[in-house]
Amino acid sequence: MNPELDLTLQRLIRAPRAAVWSAWTDPARFEKWWLPAPTLCRVDRLEVRPGGALVTRLSDDGTEFVPHLDACFLVVDELERIVFTNAIDSAWRPANPAPVPMTAEITMADHPDGTDYRVVVRHGDPGARAHHEKLGFEEGWGSVTEQLARIAESQGAR
Q1: How much of the chain, in percent, has pLDDT values that exceed 90?
Q2: What is the largest CA-CA distance in the chain?
Q3: DSSP secondary-structure letter at 48?
């Protein structure tokens, strides 16, 4: 973690790691939390494996879905860690994504009350980090993490 380049988020999710993992890897569940409500998400590809695609669309009106994210998973350690980047698209081509290129690392660890869920979003330079922060990283990633928690916790708390 480099504070000049990275943004972080941490939250206790009151559900077992398996429930959090399922919310990340099941497309039907992923669509329910990936974008801040009321924006809707549609998953085009969710191949949670190294080299697999993460492609989503979004809709603000529920009828027209436009491209949102075209990314590639780099590391997947079942029930423990997911790393993806939008700097490489789902066809493994270098990308110049808007609004900011990033690599996100999500880790999940057991906690006495559920799952210790941590996010580190890495940027290539301080300007990209500042831009992402200014766009509302804390609010955006925070709200989707809250939505993820509700999905996982509804599956059953410990």
Answers
A1: 96
A2: 43
A3: -
Paired strand residues for 38? none
Contact 70, 90 (CB under 8 A): yes
Name 25's Cβ contacts closer than 8 Å, sequence gap at least 6.
46, 48
32-43 pLDDT tens trace: 999 999 999 999
Q: What is the DSSP string of 78-144?
A: TTTEEEEESSB-TTS-B---SS---EEEEEEEEETTEEEEEEEEE-SSHHHHHHHHHHTHHHHHHHH
Query: In the prediction, which pLDDT does 155 show?
Result: 83
Directed axis angle between helix 137-155 and helix 126-135, to 10°? 70
- Domain ranges for the chain: 6-154
Report the Cα 81 to chain-centroid distance in Å: 12
Q: What are phi and psi of 64, to 5 degrees?
A: -100, 120
- List the CATH code of the domain at 6-154: 3.30.530.20
Residue of 70, 73, 75 lying closest to 44 (CA atoms): 70
Q: pTM, whole model, 2 decimals?
A: 0.94
Tell me the β-bridge partners of 122: 6, 103
